[in-house]
Amino acid sequence: MDWSTYNAALPTVGVVNALGALIGLWVVYAIAQHMRRRAHCTPLASPPNPSFLFGIGRSLFKHPDPAAVYEQWAEKYGSVFRIPATLGYSRVVLCDPKAIQHFYSHETFLYQQTTLTKQSIESLVGRGVLWAEGESHKRQRKALTPAFSNAAIRRLTYIFFDSAYKIKTAWDSIIAAEGDDSAIIEVQAWMNHVSLDSIGIAGFSHDFGTLHGKHSTVAETFDSFSSLKPTLIGVAVFIVGLAFPRVMMRIPTAFRMLVKQLNASMSEVADDLLANTRKESEGEDKAEDKSIIGLLVKAESNQSDLHMSQDEVMAQMKVLILAGYETTSISLTWCLVELCKKPEIQAKLRSELSQISSGDPTWDQLTNGFPYLDAVVHETLRLHPPLGETTRIATEDAIIPLSTPLKTPTGTVVDNVSIAKGDIVTVPIHLMNSWPEIWGPDAREFNPERWLAEDGVPKKAQELQGHRHLLTFVDGPRICLGRGFALAEFKAVLSVLIRNYTFEFRDGPDTQIERVRGILPRPGVAGEKGAKIPLRVRRLE
Ligand code: HEM
Ligand SMILES: *[C@@H]1O[C@H](CO)[C@@H](O)[C@H](O)[C@H]1NC(C)=O
Ligand SMILES: *[C@@H]1O[C@H](CO)[C@@H](O)[C@H](O)[C@H]1NC(C)=O
Ligand SMILES: *[C@@H]1O[C@H](CO)[C@@H](O)[C@H](O)[C@H]1NC(C)=O
Ligand SMILES: CC(=O)N[C@H]1CO[C@H](CO)[C@@H](O)[C@@H]1O
Question: Which of 100-119 are b and which e, b meaning 16 or more Cβ less than 10 Å from the residue's Cβ?
Answer without folding.
Answer: bbbbbebbbebbbbeebbbb
